[in-house]
Design brief:
There is one protein chain. The protein has 380 residues and is of the alpha/beta class. The chain folds into 2 domains: 220 residues, DHBP synthase, CATH 3.90.870.10; 144 residues, Response regulator (Rossmann fold, 3-Layer(aba) Sandwich), CATH 3.40.50. It contains 15 helices and 14 strands. The strands form 2 sheets. A 10-stranded mixed beta sheet has the order 1-8-2-3-7-4-6-5-9-10, with helices on both faces. β13, α14 and β14 form a beta-alpha-beta unit.
C-alpha cells in the first residue's frame, strides 16, 4: 500500500499567524493555541531548536492532518513533546536512572530520549501507535521554550511534534520559513522569533546506562558519554576535610574493587554546603591520608553545592543531618538520591579538624561506611 500522503493534501483557508512580539501578554496566544489543539487543530510553534508543527497525541484526526500538511511518509516516526519527566514516565517502561538523570540535566532542552513504550502507548489507536512507537520505542522530549511549555502545561497532555517544513526540505528556524512552507496547510503559526539553537535536537536511545546517539545536535556525544558516568557526590560543611576524605577513599576502594579501567565509569566528587570556592584541604587531612592510605589530596580545592552539581549526582552522601537538610532546602527534588553516609544513620562528626587523632578516627569511620555502601555505589 502506498503510504505517501502527498496526493491527498487538502488546502485549508489561509493560515492564521500570531506574533508573540506584538502581544503584551503571551497568555492570550497560549490560550488560542490550546483551544485550537483541543479542537483537532494543527499549529506551528517555536521551540529552542527549530520550529515544530504540533497536534495532540490523543487526536488521530489531527495527527493525520499534520501528516498531510507536511506530505510526510507514515513510515517515519513522530516524536512526542511533554512538559516534564513526570509526564514522560507515564508513556515509557524505561526505569533507567540514567534516563532520569539526562532529563534532570537537559530537560527542558534539545534532547529527545528514545525509550521503551508502555501499555499507555499500546492503548493508543493502532494507527497512532504505529506513528509514535512502531517497534516498541517512543521518542520523548521536553522543549525549552516558554510559550510551548505554557501550552503543554495548560493543555495537560502530550503533543506530537515534528519540524515545520515539507517532508524532505530543511527545517526552519523562523516563522517566515514555516509560513512559506505550510501556509494554508496548518491552522495556526505562532511567531516567536528566530530559534536560539537553530539545529534539531540530539536524539539518544537509552538502555540502562548505555546510550546510542541516533542524531547529534547541540548536546554532543561526548557530553552524553560523560553523563553516563555514575556520579557520587560527598557533602560536608566546608569541603576541606570530611567530604574530601570520603571522595579520596571512595576513589581508592572503587579502583580496588573494579580495576582502574572500569573505575573510569564512576565520577566521584565532593562539595560543601558552606564552602568557599578554591580552599585547600586542611593540613591534617592531607597528612592523615598521606601517612595512613598513601593518598595525596593536596591538589583538591573546595566548592559549594549548586543545582547543576546536584542534578549530575546519582548518589549524594552527607556526613550529618544538617548537611542533608541544607541540601534538600536547596533542591527538594534530590531527596530520593540523598543519604547519610553511615548506613546506620549515625552522623560522622569532627569536633576539631586540627587534631590528627580525630581526623584519623573520622577517616576510619568514613572508610567503614564506604565499605558498607559499596554495593549501592557500584550498582549500575
Amino acid at each position: 500500500m502506498n503510504r505517501d500522503l502527498g496526493s491527498s493534501i487538502k488546502i485549508m483557508p489561509k493560515t492564521e499567524v500570531v506574533d508573540l512580539s506584538t502581544n503584551a501578554d503571551n497568555q492570550s496566544a497560549v490560550a488560542k493555541c490550546v483551544e485550537l489543539l483541543r479542537a483537532s487543530g494543527v499549529a506551528v510553534v517555536p521551540t529552542e531548536t527549530v520550529y515544530g508543527v504540533a497536534a495532540r497525541l490523543a487526536d488521530y484526526d489531527a495527527i493525520q492532518k499534520l501528516m498531510r500538511a507536511k506530505n510526510r511518509d507514515e513510515r517515519r516516526t513522530l516524536a512526542v513533546a511533554v512538559n516534564n519527566w513526570k509526564t514522560a514516565s507515564l508513556y515509557t517502561d524505561c526505569r533507567s536512572k540514567f534516563a532520569e538523570k539526562l532529563a534532570r540535566l537537559y530537560w527542558p532542552g534539545p534532547l529527545t530520549l528514545i525509550m521503551p513504550s508502555n501499555e499507555r502507548v499500546e492503548d493508543l489507536p493502532t494507527a497512532t501507535r504505529e506513528l509514535v512507537a512502531p517497534v516498541g520505542f517512543i521518542g520523548l522530549r521536553a522543549p525549552r521554550n516558554e510559550f510551548l511549555i505554557d501550552v503543554l502545561n495548560q493543555l495537560g497532555e502530550p503533543i506530537v511534534l515534528t519540524s515545520a517544513n515539507l517532508s524532505g526540505e530543511p527545517p526552519t528556524t523562523n516563522a517566515q520559513g514555516a509560513l512559506r512552507a505550510l501556509n494554508g496547510r496548518v491552522d495556526l503559526i505562532v511567531n516567536g522569533g528566530a530559534t536560539p539553537i537553530g539545529v534539531p535536537s540530539t536524539v539518544a536511545r537509552i538502555m540502562g546506562y548505555e546510550v546510542e546517539i541516533l542524531r547529534e545536535g547541540e548536546i554532543t556525544r561526548d557530553a552524553l558519554r560523560e553523563a553516563a558516568r555514575k556520579t557520587i557526590l560527598f557533602i560536608c560543611d566546608a569541603n576541606t576535610c570530611r567530604s574530601v576524605i570520603a571522595e579520596a577513599l571512595c576513589k581508592k576502594i572503587v579502583a580496588e574493587r573494579v580495576g582502574d579501567a572500569r573505575a573510569r565509569e564512576y565520577k566521584i566528587i565532593s562539595a560543601g554546603v558552606d564552602a568557599f570556592t578554591g580552599d585547600a584541604p586542611t593540613q591534617v587531612a592531607c597528612e592523615t591520608l598521606e601517612s595512613n592510605y598513601n593518598i595525596s589530596i593536596a591538589g583538591s580545592r573546595s566548592r559549594r553545592i549548586h543545582y547543576r552539581l546536584l542534578d549530575e549526582a546519582d548518589l549524594i552522601y552527607c556526613m550529618d543531618e544538617s548537611q542533608r537538610q541544607a541540601t534538600l532546602k536547596l533542591d527538594p527534588n534530590c531527596e530520593s538520591r540523598i543519604r547519610i553516609l553511615d548506613p546506620s544513620g549515625r552522623e560522622i562528626k569532627l569536633s576539631s579538624a586540627n587534631k590528627s587523632s580525630e581526623v584519623l578516627l573520622c577517616a576510619l569511620r568514613v572508610e567503614e561506611a564506604l565499605t558498607q555502601r559499596m554495593t549501592e555505589i557500584l550498582e549500575r
